[in-house]
Amino acid sequence: MTARRSVDYSLYLVTDSTSAILGKKDLLEVVKAAVAGGVTIVQYRDKTSETADVVQIAQQLYEVTKAAGVPLLINDRVDVALAVGCEGVHVGQDDMDLKTARKLLGPDAIVGVTANSEEEASQAARDGADYLGIGTVYATPTKENTKSIIGTAGVQQILSSLAKQNHTVKTVCIGGINHANAQRVLYQTASPSKQLDGIAVVSAIMAASDPKKASSDLRQLIATPPPFATSASKPQLSPSDLVARIPTIIKTMASKKPLCHNMTNLVVQNFAANVAIAIGSSPIMSNNGLEAPDLANLGGSLVINMGTTTPEIRENHLKALAAYNAVGGPTLLDPVGAGATQQRREGVKALLAGGYFDVLKGNEGEIRTASGAQGVQQRGVDSGASQLSMEEKIALVKETAGRLRNVVLMTGSADVISDGERTFVIENGHELLGEITGSGCALGTTIASVMATWREDKLLAAVAGCLMYEIAAERAAGRENVKGPGTFVPAFIDELYLIRKESLDENGQWVQGAKVRAA
Ligand code: 3NM
Asked: Which region is the signal sequence (predicted)?
């Protein structure tokens, strides 16, 4: 019997005997294959069979798991665990309570509990649960009557609250976890103080045609950080240190001429492509998700811009996002008009749940919507009157970046940018940027272009992109022949081009105009 305290929870298989999941396969054979493939713990979950059958199947499963040194738990049925003599049980909130289960099974048994909220998690930890099954992360056809979908943000919140109370209980998450999202879920749920000990899956293994391979592939994924992850500790930088590094970052981008793949709206395609060329990157404007895997392999970055949305575009966005995430290609989301319509509110939610974005960039209304605020009503793509003080903006940007483990940029007359640890306010730019179409969208293109060649510290890359863009706007607006928006656009493209040239010539004077402060 595996010692209760030394259990490896990293790949936790929950079985399912229904034909919808198992198909025509034999449960015992699937579990044998999964154990051979490397699952580290098994829970026998059977909501439909008669008790006599459940006991018999559990006995057979126990022979398989015991031989492999993998613990077997029974879902809900303390009586079955006792009959079989296996390692323990998993109880849901509506099943037998944890303390009674512990009393019946004794001190050596493993008892795990389902937790959907901070309160349920704390209570179970206080009552001595060995581990928590935290969920439901994503909606799943495997279990339709789940309480609430908490996403990676909900899991992270529960982990933080456990850490604050010094609970060392082990944790796995469950609900819709599969090969495509396992690494990201482990990455994005981690709080600075506590991270998951593993993932629990049903269909990703039980419904797989080759459960052994499905298990060993998942083990491999769990053991490696996602391709887009960067080293955890970033240097703290004063605003002047930060600004001093910018010209080199722009020079690197301009000399490498990275590909910048834009899935962007109809309005700005031409302007964004011209901006990309001016700053020294190589734009490709493709909204076809099917060609994203080929493009992702070319070493560039991806911009997903939600403007001029269409019914079929979300699938294309998700395909492209998966392709770039798979190779660690930098990604930026511009949730244009996120708070304007139901389609866009759903779109931003689906995109943030469906993949990893290195940078989330938007105006106040967009960032508030993306961060989960209810009732934000944007009039079209404009942010509308500001609802937040500068302190509130800083707090929201910092908190959202910490939660998503990425960089969040809220644009406005002062831009607020954070990676959750380091937060800056940038006060460059010019009001003429607000008088032309697509200036926000082309800023996304600029930042993504810089990120393509500066991957280790994406906050630095994003600040570099902002400063190049906004200082170019100031220089353009200051030209004598610029009389308004019409003359501003060509002057702006010229200034972007000139800043690129100056940076390539190692003339970083242009950055002296940066107005950056720490927040
Ligand atoms: N419990 P799949 S979700 C058994 O939220 C179970 O507590 C859940 O199945 C919870 O890995 C779930 O196929 C089913 O999405 C998970």
From this structure: none
pLDDT digits (tens, 9 = 90+) for 291-330: 999 999 999 999 999 988 888 899 999 999 999 999 999 9
Do 4-223 and 239-518 agree at the fold level? Answer: no
Give dist(CA 80, CA 58) in Å, integer: 8
- d(CA 178, ligand 1 centre) in Å: 11
The pLDDT tens digits of the residues spanning 368-425 come to 999 987 777 777 777 677 889 999 999 999 999 999 999 999 999 999 999 999 999 9
CATH for 239-518 is 3.40.1190.20
Distance 74 CA to ligand 1 centre (A): 15
Q: Which atom of ligand 1 approaches the CA of 75 most closely?
A: 4
Angle at 321 between CA 306 and CA 223, to 5 degrees: 145
What pLDDT, on the 0 to 100 scale, is given for residue 502?
Answer: 98
In the chain, domain spans: 4-223, 239-518
Q: Which atom of ligand 1 is nearest to the CA of 92?
A: 7
- Candidate from 22, 132, 136 with most ligand 1 atoms within 8 A of CB, to mutate: 136
Q: Which CATH number fits domain 4-223: 3.20.20.70, 3.30.980.10, 3.40.50.920, 3.40.1350.10?
A: 3.20.20.70
In ligand 1, the atom with minimum distance to the C-alpha of 14 is: 4
Contact 404, 188 (CB under 8 A): yes
Q: 150: closest CA among 120, 113, 111?
A: 120
